[in-house]
Structure formats: structure tokens, C-alpha cells
Write a structure and sequence with these properties.
Helix content: over 70%
Number of strands: 0
Number of domains: 1
Radius of gyration: 17 Å
Order of helices and strands: HH
Number of helices: 2
Shape: elongated
Oligomer: single chain
């Protein structure tokens, strides 16, 4: 029986959260534009910042997952 790798599970969850933030940035920007006075500027800034943050989280999680997967190649537990 193999042990569960909780570290990889957390990294994959972070990747999924980053991708979900990227895909929902348009909708979240629209909500922020309607809730906060300033309309178009707030919508544009919120959409761009959420997309950028989601992309950074997704890229970081994917690179960590790939790097540790490459390091584990050849190690039989």
C-alpha cells in the first residue's frame, strides 16, 4: 500500500484555485465594478489584478509540482 502524498495534493489544489481565479476574473471584476463607485476603472483594475494573481498562483503551483515530480523520478518508495 502506497502512502498518500499530501504535499502534492495541496499543490494540485492551489493550481486548481489559480485556474479558477483566472477564469472567474471577468465576473468578479463586474461584481466589483457594480459594488464600488468608479465603475469602469474599478472593473478593469479588478479584472486584471485577479487574473494576474490567479495566473501567478497557477504557474507557481504547476512549476513546484513538476519540479518535485522530476526530483522523485527514480526514487522507489
Amino acid at each position: 500500500m502506497k502512502a498518500v502524498d499530501f504535499g502534492a495534493t495541496i499543490v494540485v489544489y492551489n493550481f486548481i484555485i489559480g485556474v479558477l481565479l483566472m477564469t472567474s476574473s471577468e465576473k468578479l471584476g463586474a461584481y466589483a465594478g457594480n459594488a464600488i463607485p468608479g465603475g469602469e476603472r474599478v472593473t478593469r483594475f479588478t479584472r486584471l489584478s485577479i487574473f494576474t494573481f490567479g495566473a501567478a498562483v497557477a504557474v507557481l503551483a504547476a512549476s513546484v509540482y513538476i519540479a518535485f515530480h522530476w526530483l522523485r523520478i527514480g526514487i522507489d518508495t
